[in-house]
Specification:
Length: 68
Amino acid sequence: MADKQYKQLGCLDVQPGGGCGFQVRTETEAELMQLVATHAKQCHKLDSIPPEMVAKVQAAVKTVTVAV
């Protein structure tokens, strides 16, 4: 098996205790941010993500290694 690295984030990583179980894992941070923006709009009714929240999201992104 080979190892592959992914970017991973969950709503609880950004807002612990927030009650949203959304989690995403992608190959790139750009992909991850696009999916987070879609999730924020659909589930949290945010038309755009404020800059301070973008910084918080980016700081919470983890790189994980998965055996594939």
